[in-house]
Amino acid sequence: MTIANVVPTIWSARLLDTFERTAVYADMLTDVSAEVASDGNKVELGRITTDPTIGDYTKGTDITFQTLADAKTTLSIDQEKYWALSLDDIDAAQAKPALMEPAVGKAARKLARVFDDYVAGVLAPSSVAAANKTAMGSTAFGASSADDLGDVTDAQAKAFVLKINEVLATKIQQANWDAEVRGTISTDAAGIIRQHLIATGAGSDGLQDSVLLEGQLSRFLGIRLRIDTNMASGVLRTAGTPLLRIFASDAAYWAAQINRVEFGRHEKQFGDFAKGLMVYGAVKSPYGEKLHVIEV
Q1: What is the pLDDT of residue 263?
Q2: Which of 47, 49, 118, 153 is 20 to 30 Å from 103 by CA-CA measure?
Q3: What is the number of alpha carbons within 13 Å of residue 146 lying toward its C-beta?
């Protein structure tokens, strides 16, 4: 195997790993990519609609059987996104540091954000039912004229944490989703909880790394949590701004038919190129609403 084959293979693996680590919803929701046919653009998701009945048994008497009924939900693979970069040999020779590798890494991270924004829109559209939302109120974090996270008081941060605990202890547990409970949180909401942890001595003010912060927030709230940087920030006094999305791991399904990165040399120019293509889709759970949004 030549170097020309080895290097693109290594880069491709790095980029796919970068996408998987950056894309928040890729590992938080159910991936059904393995069920996508190579020559199709849809996945048919079957579900049982029969609600089993528990009956009393009497020895020596016949039991009653229920006939199972099912329904289907279609996941369409209809999102087609690409990126393509080119670098002339002269620019590559004169540039310090190297340009191509960080550029394609940035492309992978940006594609992950586009993917996240789409999947989040499928999971939690603007028309979430009122029963699946909890509003803090536009003055929960101070005067409506303020817009700085630094204006949030310790008492307000504590009230926010208590509201999350109330939702988890009542609406989420009582919903009995029968799947792992997970959540995505805005940077502002993560900052408010972090403020509460520091104020109570339960956290460190040195947690600047997002991965470490996600781990601490997950342990504190008792659910697997990721920070979604696509969620709005700087609008803590605007009603309807989402702060925390709590959902089941099967609240939505997604699939990728193609997630490919290619590298090569231009045929009629002296230079390299890199390009990536992702074809994917997502659909809301066929088992009903498994989402609760805490918002301003």
Answers
A1: 86
A2: 118
A3: 13
